[in-house]
């Protein structure tokens, strides 16, 4: 726009100046030409005038000679001067005009002596003198005419120049008017275009502003700018809405804004702002706003320092987002997570309880059997027999010797007592065995409970143990049941290194494997129920396998057998193998199964490393 206007102004200037300049140049050239003509004609005219004047002086002298009879030397001098002037004129290139006169006057001067002459000398020269007079007059007239012509030409030229200047001025005026009109038209068109553009820009701005308003309102986002003075602020309408402050009454300043922030968040919010301005970094802060109606609104503020204007200085331009819904949703989610955690903890506790019950249940079976055995032994009426013997002996206290040697009952007494003592010893032995088994089983129950307590705290107590003693213990806990159901057991224990494990974790796996094996044999209803127990070395650990010749496992059950809850037993829980496999994995080992199918028995193998990973630091 500015460049186009400059161009127009330049053109206008040229339109005004160019005609005048041309006229002035032409005028200057004409003036120069006129000055040259005048310079040239004036000296010639002077010479011609001098020649004529001197010749006239000579003529007057000659006329006087009629009276005085002599021509004085002054007159001759005048004649010679006239001849000299004419010669000058010829020398200056005026020969065509002065040639004849110069010759005639020079010749005349040549015949008249310088000191003068008498009338007689002059009379024969009368014709030539008169001719000289006519010629010099003609020369004078000619030069006068030429001079007058030059002057007239100068005057005429001046008139033409005046007209040219006037013409130039008129042309300039016309051009100026034309240019002004053209410029006005162009400027008008341009201004109209600019106005249209401005109008469009405004419309676009308005559209953007409307969109911005809708978007920020929808997003519940307020826009603000904190001036470089760090005091005054500009707020968008949505900002006022966010803080529930009327634009008519609330003047946003740093101080008035801080007043609206929750007292607990105020210091941090202010520090975030001053820090962002000082370090010229992005601002990201979150705080609560207290609205006049008492409600609390959570705000996330994002801002950056704008340094685009030198005039305005660095300002903090930012956006405040209402994140109350998000914060409340987060809070709800946090509560849900909490509840979920509680629920899963309860589920975990339930699982632990199931585990404990299962393992304790396994052991309680043996406890029950041992207890029944002891009870049976104790219930047997051997003590009653003994008291009868004591009664008989008391009756025959006086004749004890004859009673033992003569009386039929007395004679059987020593044998009977021998038998009784044998039975009592056997009962005692069995009872002691069962009590020992009971003690071990109760110990195992105690351990199971304390292990589950430790497990719930994710802490185990690893021990260095001989694998064979572990397997023996497990077997001992089940041996009663094996005997009762007529299941024979064969042990094949290879020499293996000791392992570092949590004893009762391994025991609970083995007890379940033995119970399952016994059950499988029992269910097979065959005469030779048999279980093989093996311990073997592995490259970096040991393996314990329990092989039975029981019912075997269907192929489709092979993958499900370790799943929680999988059982084919009427009163089974489907927990033993599942928890066993988990425990084996926890110890860095594995629990595997092999079976050729139903009727072909099954082999369960527990693989254990020499030191389980959870015990590495122990
Ligand atoms: N030696 C085996 N021979 C054949 N099937 C077996 C054998 N051991 C386990 N199973 C099968 O695997 C199932 C799951 O065994 P698991 O020990 O996990 O649970 P359960 O013995 O049924 O019940 P519980 O949780 O009381 O031990 C058994 O019900 C049985 O069908
Ligand atoms: Mg089981």
Explain this structure to me?
With 618 residues, the protein is of the alpha+beta class. The protein folds into four domains: 184 residues; 104 residues, 2-Layer Sandwich (Beta-Lactamase); 118 residues; 158 residues, Heat Shock Protein 90. It contains 14 helices and 14 strands. The strands form four sheets. Strands 4-3-7-6-5 form a five-stranded antiparallel sheet, sandwiched between helices. A five-stranded mixed sheet has the order 9-11-12-14-13. Helix 8 runs antiparallel to helix 11. About 1% of the residues have low confidence. It binds adenosine-5'-triphosphate (ATP) and magnesium ion. Magnesium ion binds next to helix 13.
SSE layout and pairings?
Blueprint: H1 2-68, E1 70-71, H2 73-111, E2 117-118, H3 119-122, H4 126-218, E3 221-226, E4 233-235, H5 237-243, H6 254-260, H7 263-279, E5 283-290, E6 296-306, E7 315-322, H8 324-379, H9 382-395, H10 400-405, H11 408-456, E8 463-465, H12 467-484, E9 487-493, E10 499-501, H13 503-524, E11 529-538, E12 541-548, H14 576-586, E13 590-594, E14 602-609
Parallel strand pairs: 9-11
Antiparallel strand pairs: 1-2, 3-4, 3-7, 5-6, 6-7, 8-10, 11-12, 12-14, 13-14
The structure holds adenosine-5'-triphosphate and magnesium ion (MG).
Residues 512, 515-516, 576 line the site of magnesium ion.
